[in-house]
Design a protein that fits this description.
Elements lengths: L15 H9 L11 H8 L3 H13 L3 E4 L2 E4 L1 H8 L2 H20 L2 E8 L2 E8 L14 E3 L4 H7 L4 H7 L15 H14 L2 E4 L6 E10 L2 E11 L8 H20 L12
Antiparallel strand pairs: 1-2, 3-4, 3-8, 4-5, 6-7, 7-8
Helix pairs in contact: 1-2, 1-3, 2-3, 5-9, 7-8
């Protein structure tokens, strides 16, 4: 007797791990404490599934109870701090703080992930305007000075073939044409400084410099300020001094048996 054909697996059915990460990503800088119902809506999951996932995530320390809701657990912070990028951020922080004290403006430190910048640190100015950036947040690299500083040290001939076209835009000033962006990135590479004026957020200007090791941008530093104000005198020089000091400290750190932490072969 012939056997009945086995049912094909549903390849598009999200795994329990995917659902867990959908749930974790429902938390954000604006919603740091959420109820079960809010999480279920944000993650687009049934309440029963969310209830089971939360129970397990609480056991693992990835989520914690908070009054009548839930919050991201400190176990997640520990994991994030254990990345090579987290180590680089620790080494960079004293130099970022010095730049922040000198400029009294908002200082960012970020790395590149695909075509986005991921912010590892943000030191806001005392009277700085509300900003769309946040630690751990991502923005399209083409819309930010810090992203351009990072992209400029990729293989620009290859990059042109891989970038989405049109590029994502955040304001009317954003560069969305690939050819236009590549042309600007060549200029950024030559000058060592990237600029952005209202391309990520209206009314805000940023200047950025890459943290270069062996010709590869392992990170970048930017300073942001209101567009109607002039750039502080010697700001570009201060950025270069900051990135040079970060490179020296990272180079010393990698020499202590951590060479394999570097994103490319030394």
């Amino acid at each position: 007797m012939a056997q009945a054909p086995s049912k094909a697996p549903e390849a598009d059915t999200p795994s329990i791990l995917t659902k867990a990460f959908d749930l974790l990503r429902a938390f954000n800088p604006h919603e740091r404490v959420m109820t079960l119902s809010e999480l279920a809506r944000a993650a687009d999951l049934p309440k029963s599934t969310v209830h089971r996932l939360l129970a397990r995530l609480v056991d693992l320390g990835m989520v914690e109870h908070h009054r009548s809701g839930y919050k991201i657990g400190l176990g997640m912070l520990q994991l994030g701090a254990s990345t090579p990028a987290g180590y680089m951020r620790d080494l960079a922080l004293p130099h970022l703080a010095q730049l922040h004290r000198w400029s009294e403006l908002t200082v960012h430190f970020a790395v590149l992930r695909q075509f986005d910048v991921v912010y590892l640190e943000k030191l806001a100015g005392r009277d700085s305007r509300a900003s769309i950036t946040s630690i751990g947040g991502r923005l399209p690299a083409n819309c930010t000075a810090i992203g351009k500083a990072l992209l400029a040290h990729e293989d620009l001939d290859d990059l042109a073939d891989f970038l989405p076209s049109p590029l994502p835009g955040m304001t009317s000033r954003s560069i969305t044409g690939v050819d236009t962006l590549i042309s600007e990135l060549r200029k950024v590479r030559d000058e060592g400084i990237a600029h952005e004026n209202g391309e990520a957020q209206p009314g805000l200007t940023c200047i950025a410099a890459p943290v270069l090791m062996n010709g590869f941008a392992i990170g970048a530093v930017s300073v942001g300020y209101p567009a109607e104000l002039p750039a502080p005198r010697r700001l570009e020089e201060a950025l270069h001094v900051t990135t040079t000091r970060i490179v020296a400290d990272v180079d010393d750190g990698l020499a202590s048996g951590r060479e394999h932490w570097f994103p490319r072969e030394l």
